[in-house]
Amino acid sequence: MDSGLSDPLPPHVVFYPFPIQSHVNTTMSLAELLCLAGFRITFVISEHGHSRLAQYTDTLRRLSASYREEFVFKVVPDGLDPDAPRSDDNLWKIYDNYQKDAGSLFRELNGASPVTCIIADGLMTFSIDVAEELGIPLIVFRLIGPQCFWTYFNVPQMIETGDLPIKGEEDMEAFIRCSDLPSFCRVADPLDPFLQYIIAETLQTKRAQALVFNTFDQLDRTVLEHVRKHFPNVYTVGPLHKHLKLRLAQVSGAQSQVQFNSFWQVDRSCIAWLNKQPPRSVIYVSFGSLTRMTREQLMGFWHGLVNSGQRFLWVIRPDLVAGHEQGSEPIELRKATEERGYMVGWAPQEEVLEHSAVGAFLTHSGWNSTLESLVAGVPMLCWPYYADQQLNSRVVSEAWKAGLDMKDICDREVMQKMVNDLMVDRKEEFLSSTGKISKAAKDAVTEGGSSWESLDCLIEDIKAMRACSYRCLQ
C-alpha cells in the first residue's frame, strides 16, 4: 500500500437528519457545502421526503447533475402510511421507527463504503450508540439556536432548584420568563416523557466528537461562551442558506440561486404580486411547515391583518387549520383580501423575504425562519407554536430588538396594533436593528468571516478523521 497513503479516498460523510422539511432543508445545505469541499456524501432521507422533493422541486436533479455519485441519497421508510400527515402528532412514531432501524442502516452504509463520520440530527442521538459500536466518529448538528440548546442543557438544574415544573402563573425574575421557556418545559410533571426525552438528547450530545450550530458568533456570542465550556468542539457555520450561496458563487463565479427544498408545491405567483407593491409595504405571513391552528385563531389573524390596513402576503398550507374548508371565509374578508392581500399554499420564503416590497414577517419563530428574516433585514412579529419557538420569539424582541413578541395571544386588536407598530409607528427603529444584524450575518459567511472560517475548520477536522481512519487500515 504505497500511493494510497499519499492519496487516500475522500472523506465519506453520512448525514442523518430528522425527516421533517425544516431539518432536511438546512441539513442538506451543510451536506452540499461539504460536497463542495470534495467530500462524498450519503444523505439519509425518508421515502416521504424524497418523493416530495422529486414532486415539487428540482433538488434531486440539480444535485445529481452537479455532483453525480459524490452526493447520493439513501431512501428509508419513516414508519407511516404514505398518506398519513407528517405533523407533530406523528413525530414520535417516526422517531421510534428511525431508532429501531439505525443499527442495520449504519452497518449497511459502512459496509458498502467505509464511513469517515456521521453528522446526526440533535434529535436522534441514539445513533451515537451505533457509531461507537462501529468505531465511526459522530458529530451532532443541532437545528435549534444555542439559546434553546443551553436552556435544554440546564433543565435538570432547573428541576433540582424547583424552577420546573412551572407552578401556576408566576414568572421568574429574569430575562427569560416562564412563558418564554420552550414548550416542552410547560408540563406539570418533571417526569413527562417528552421533557425527559429532550433532557436525554441534550446530555447525550456530550458523547459526540463535536457540535454544529446554524448560527454565527456575533449573534450568539454570550451563550456560545457558556456552551463551549461544556462542549469544546463547537462549530458555528450559519446562516447556512446564505453561506451555501456564497460558496457556490465562489466556485461558479456567479451569484447562485439555490432552490428551497420544499415538501410543498411552491406558488411563485406571489412574486409577481409583490413586484407590483411599494417598497416595505407588505407583511409576509407564514407559520412554517408544522404549525396547526384553530379556525378561531385563523380568523383572529385575518381580522387583525385586514383591520391594520396594511398589505399582506399570507401562506395558508392545506393542513394549517384542522377541518378548514377552502372558500369558507366570510365574504367581507375575501373582499378585503382581494383589495390588499394575496394568499398562496406555499411560498419561496427566502426569495419573498429578500423582496424589496416586504417590510415585516409574521412568523411562528422557527429557527430557520428567524435566521432567514434576520439575513434579509426584515423585522418580525412572533407568534410561536411549540418547541424552541417560545424562546426564539423572546430573544427576537428583547435581545436583538428585531421585532415584537405576540406569544400566546391571538387577539385581533393586539394583532392590528403590533402590525402597525412594525410597519408604521416604529418601522425605522426595527429596520435599523435588523439591518445591523443582516450585515453581521453576511459578514460572517463571507470569506474570512467567523462562519466561513468555522466551516473550514470543520472540513479540516473531518479530513483528519479520514486520515486517521485510513492509517488504521494499513
UniProtKB/TrEMBL annotation:
Highest taxon, organism lineage: Eukaryota
Name by which UniProt lists this protein: Uncharacterized protein
Source species: Melastoma candidum
